[in-house]
Amino acid sequence: MGLFKNKPAKWAGRYRTESARWQGYDYSQDGFYFVTICTENKELFFGDIRDGKMVLSDIGKIADKFWLEILDHFSFVKLDCYVIMPNHVHVVLYIDHGQIDDDGGYTTVETRRGASLPRTQNKHKRKFGPLQKNSISSIINHYKGGVTKLCCKYDINFAWQARFHDRVIRNENELNRVRQYIIDNPLRWELDRNNKNDLYI
User: Fold this and answer.
1) Residue 117: helix, strand or coil by DSSP?
2) Could you list the residue range(s) of the whole structural domain that residue 81 is in?
3) Alpha-carbon gap, residue 158 to 199, rounded angstroms
């Protein structure tokens, strides 16, 4: 199959490595990405878990609102699973610039949750450098900046962790595992908050 073609030979680390990025990988190319964004010092800004469900604070509602508005700013982004947790956000997003088929039109293969898997992939790779337009970093920086700006406007004490964690999703099985992890995250909160070595945060 032509799905998830672009991948290095092996991803050698785990989710909490200092840099989980593949050197030379073009993070603006089409594909699924799993991203975790944490609050500064893992402060519980976004709300609390009650009976296995996330109850958003005012800041949590801002974080939720701005994530859904990503579609208004990046037309090539499709949103998949996400969850706002008390001190972090897990998201799966899909970059889809469109694939040109034999007739000159754009082709994607539709899957559940409104996301799509590409039939072909752009094989262009790039090295580290300045913030790349339309990359995962530019999308997440825009999101983090929007939340922070609105909090500042209303004099709300809030800050993000400087960095975020991202992972290229390599195949459909991994995509489904990550989706399930995100769905189950509120139920796992007691484990997450007491286990500082949780692989995903």
Assistant:
1) strand
2) 31-193
3) 24
Q: Is residue 118 part of a domain?
A: yes
Q: Tell me, yes or no, whether 166 lies in a domain.
A: yes
Residues 6 or more apart from 35 whose CB is under 8 A from it? 90, 91, 92, 93, 136, 140, 164, 165, 166, 167
- Tell whether 19 is covered by a domain: no
Question: pTM of the full predicted structure?
Answer: 0.73
In a domain, 18, yes or no: no
Number of domains the chain is built from? 1
Distance between alpha carbon 189 and the CA centroid of its chain, in Å? 19
Give pLDDT, residue 29. 85
Residue with tokens 């699924």: 32
How far apart, in whole angstroms, are the C-alpha atoms of residue 83 and residue 13?
A: 24
DSSP conformational letter for 131: P
Choose from 83-92, 116-125, 131-140 the range with maximum mean pLDDT: 83-92
CATH code where residue 75 lies: 3.30.70.1290
